[in-house]
Design the sequence.
């Protein structure tokens, strides 16, 4: 938006998880490599752009992740689409750069991210319809997607001007799946209501229970039959359905990574009951209770619990963040049966968790090939995501002093 306001001609293809964006001087296409209701919703500006691309390069296939026990058929379908996706991106770039004068080319390769989630270690997942031959094919899927992305990048670089600054940025890494957030609602319930009967299950988390009961393939078909906006709204509603907000002091938020706990604070939440004077003591009690849990096999469950309000300066959207962020341990959780506490008992996993074998890691990487400036070394840390915007703005001569982050380029 900042580049566009400065009169720069931006061409963006598949910015991940991005809302519809209007540009005065550029063009954006979302859902081109594949369509996904979360990662890559289908839209373009101008509206005719995606249709023009489809006319010449073929319609966009649909590729959805569905949490829960995966089927081999679904994983093979994902493999096919994700290995094709980088080539579709390169084809769009080759065509559009011929037709449009462009100052900034902004591309997202979402396929390698989803492939990391789904194919990090397929052998560790209980797959429906498993056959040795096709599982061997799935084992190589992550490498195959990266090879396809590398080939696509080579095609893209061939059509770029020789004086273009090149910046490849990976905002997060991928490693073993350590997700335990599906167990958090019941862990929290035990801490807040220690006298309630022990259920040894995922308890009040309706979304987790639904995923465990309804087969993944059926849930996928139902979601595909609904408009994307309705499907996402329904999923969000199921995560909190059935709660009596007059008695809920804290609740967990859906997450595919860290655990998030939000207090039901009076004056902040619609049906808040917790007074501001009670916030610190309640946070202390929840954090202390959570720290008593470990995996059923005795290994560590929680690496740390952070309070964003203690780290971040005041801001008008600070209240939008969770009150507690639970960082899970590095122990793989794909086949975890549950967690246990000497104080609050055992919470068993209902279903198969996310069904992913790969999870997020907090490690960013940047590869920079500057033509118009000199690379500013980043020593002793990973580059920050906010530096991406600062770097692009500086390369284009667009003011960014009011933005966080430091440019990774230096100009004489």
Sequence:
């Amino acid at each position: 938006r900042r580049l566009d306001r400065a009169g720069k001609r931006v061409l963006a293809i598949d910015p991940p998880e991005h809302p519809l964006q209007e540009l005065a001087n550029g063009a954006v296409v979302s859902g081109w490599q594949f369509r996904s209701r979360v990662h890559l919703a289908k839209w373009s500006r101008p509206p005719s752009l995606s249709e023009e691309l489809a006319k010449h390069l073929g319609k966009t296939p649909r590729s959805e992740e569905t949490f829960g026990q995966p089927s081999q058929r679904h994983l093979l379908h994902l493999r096919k689409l994700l290995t094709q996706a980088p080539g579709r991106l390169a084809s769009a770039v080759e065509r559009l750069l011929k037709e449009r004068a462009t100052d900034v080319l902004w591309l997202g390769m979402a396929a390698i991210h989803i492939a990391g989630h789904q194919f990090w270690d397929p052998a560790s997942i209980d797959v429906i319809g498993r056959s040795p031959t096709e599982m061997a094919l799935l084992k190589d899927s992550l490498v195959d997607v990266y090879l396809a992305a590398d080939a696509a990048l080579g095609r893209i670089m061939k059509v770029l001007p020789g004086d273009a600054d090149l910046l490849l940025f990976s905002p997060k890494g991928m490693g073993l799946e350590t997700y335990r957030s599906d167990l958090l609602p019941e862990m929290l319930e035990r801490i807040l209501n220690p006298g309630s009967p022990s259920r040894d299950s995922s308890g009040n988390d309706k979304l987790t229970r639904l995923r465990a009961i309804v087969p993944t393939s059926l849930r996928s078909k139902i979601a595909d039959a609904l408009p994307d906006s309705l499907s996402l709204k329904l999923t969000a509603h199921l995560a909190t359905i059935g709660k009596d907000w007059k008695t809920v002091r804290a609740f967990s938020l859906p997450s595919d990574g860290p655990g998030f706990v939000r207090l039901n604070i009076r004056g902040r939440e619609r049906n808040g009951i917790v007074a501001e004077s009670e916030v610190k003591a309640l946070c202390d009690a929840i954090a202390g209770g959570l720290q008593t849990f470990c995996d059923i096999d005795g290994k560590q469950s929680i690496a740390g619990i952070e309070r964003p309000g203690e780290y971040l300066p005041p801001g008008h959207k600070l209240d939008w963040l969770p009150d507690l962020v639970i960082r899970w341990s590095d122990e793989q959780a794909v086949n975890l049966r549950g967690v246990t506490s000497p104080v609050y008992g055992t919470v068993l996993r209902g279903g198969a968790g996310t069904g992913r074998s790969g999870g997020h890691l907090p490690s960013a990487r940047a590869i920079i090939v500057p033509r118009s400036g000199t690379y500013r070394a980043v020593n002793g840390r990973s580059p920050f995501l906010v530096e991406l915007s600062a770097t692009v703005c500086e390369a284009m001569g667009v003011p960014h002093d009011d933005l966080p982050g430091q440019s990774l380029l230096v100009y004489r």
User: Anything to note?
Assistant: The mean pLDDT is 88.
